[in-house]
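thread: overnight batch results

M.L. [08:02]
morning all. the overnight job finished for the chain we discussed friday. pasting input first so we're all looking at the same thing
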Amino acid sequence: MAVQCLRGRDDVAAAAGSPFFDDGGGFHGASTASSAGFDTVRALQHLQSRLARLDRERHEADACAAALREDIAARELDLARLAAEADAADATDDGTVDDEDDEDDED
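M.L. [08:03]
and the structure it wrote out:
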């Protein structure tokens, strides 16, 4: 899951360069009140759609962040365990080389 979270989404890159709202026709000032109202409704619908998409993406990002936090916590526990094992090994080390175990392995 964490690896999937780190990959970018194709539509995010495409949306980054797009204008906030573009109805394709442009406004030239000659619009009647009814078409201006229609344009406003379309703009609001477009904004609602974008808001819903952004909300879905936020939930997805939150889920990815939670998965990454779990991965980090697990790795921190592993590192703490390894550090404790290394400290314990250092505490019992008398400074001599123990070749007995190596000789047993060669037989």
